[in-house]
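Example record used in the benchmark description.
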Amino acid sequence: MDEVDKGLLNIIQTDFPIASRPYQVLGERLGISEEEALGRVRALVESGIIRRIGPSFDTRKLGHVSTLVAAKVPAERLEEVAGIVSSFPQVTHNYGRDFEYNLWFTIIAKDDSEIKRTLDKIKAETGVSDMHELPAKRMFKIKVEFEF
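Model output (structure tokens):
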């Protein structure tokens, strides 16, 4: 990763351009072409340095509900089950943990009944039934920004 990649990462974390051609704007800010900016971002995604580019919304202000779910998945099925869980549009992300409940994921939905239906479908499709919902009682939003 060179200085241009580091500059890209610094910008896109908190100041991704809202423009019809955002990679052109990124390129202009970094002194490279639009094509190079897009190519570098793609390479950072493919290498796993960037996991996701997208907005973060306050789901409660949009009238939605969310819950964190902890699931106990046989270790040999963790990747398979994580893939199934990720296929649900209501799941924003999931991650493995070194714990008895080793797969954690977040569901965002219109209401509690949609969360229940989604969780029931996930249990049916994965065959994993040992899951615990951990709904937020208070909102804590931690802003994380890495300086490259």
